[in-house]
Amino acid sequence: RNFPSRGVIWRGVGLFAGLQHNRSIEKVDYFRIDLRDIEQMSSLAPFLTLNPCLEDIALEDCNLGPVSLRTLSNALLERTDDALVTLNLNRNNFGDVDLDELVVALSRCRKLSRLYLEGTGIGRNGCASLARLLESQETNLEYLWLTDNVIDDECVNILVNSMTKNTKLRALGLVRNSRITATGWSALLKFVYDGSSIDSIVESNHTLRYVGKLTDAGREEVNRALGVDDANLLRASLKINGMWNKRRVSKIKILWSHARGSLNLGESSIVAGVMPHILAWFTGNSSSLAQYHHPPLPQARIESIRLDAIYRILKSRPDLV
Questions:
Q1: Is the entire prediction scored with pTM above 0.85?
Q2: In 3D, which of 134, 148, 151, 261 has the Cα closest to residue 207?
Q3: Angle value at C-alpha 199, between 194 and 203, nearest 5 degrees
Q4: Contact, 158 vs 186, CB < 8 A?
Q5: d(C-alpha 230, C-alpha 216), whole Å
Q6: pLDDT digits (tens, 9 = 90+) for 1-52
Q7: If we measure between CA atoms, which residue out of 78, 86, 130 comes closest to residue 108?
Q8: Do residues 113 and 85 make contact, with C-beta atoms less than 8 angstroms apart?
Q9: Are 123 and 156 in contact (CB under 8 A)?
């Protein structure tokens, strides 16, 4: 890894006792240091609590169990300086314990934007705790990594329901959780794209843009669960959520919904004066917005979709002809 020139403790260097009085290190990165020993974890805790400059903590594959996790949570809870940006606890298999104490501590870390919990054994109990963090109006979390856990459909619903008003989370790593079925992936799709009505589309989440690498194995995982068309729609919805202009994001999703036949804009309450602008969405360069497929649909198929979209509007609104 590339590290900054200052504030670094290299992997594998056991300096816990010496660290206790340090107040300037900005990043600690420990890998495969055995922290099951509560005495050793307790030796590290004062540094984690008292260093006001500490921004990044990585304790990856360090055998953190429930007891050492509690010690870590207490150390973070007692911090008086709000500098922490990243917490990486990947590959510590502490199992599906509740993470309430950790969440309480992290809720006070207003600058925290990245939380990595890959391969930790998290399931329903852990997700219920994390949901409280995601629904907090105070959190600024942007990345939550939960790949390679025991997350199932119920877990996905717990997380999705907690984010109804969350406009900050950009990435929720969920791939490689084999217990997620079509039910869970469908709930996630509906979260970022609910095409049942114009209002539901507008109220969908337009911030989340990443759930893991939906290519190769990840792509096949989602394709099998959702079918190719809905899997394409999920990937496309996540991609356009990266656009800064959220009104444009809503517009594109509305166009998709009409083109797919999920709704008919001609039957909506849109006033007649606006309908020519709606029709323009399906002409010229705008018609390419209906192409969200991988591999891309043939141009002849896109042209057919475009003409059908226009026809359905005009059939419903003969006053426009």
A1: yes
A2: 134
A3: 60
A4: no
A5: 17
A6: 334 434 444 443 455 777 777 888 999 999 988 888 788 888 899 999 999 9
A7: 78
A8: yes
A9: no
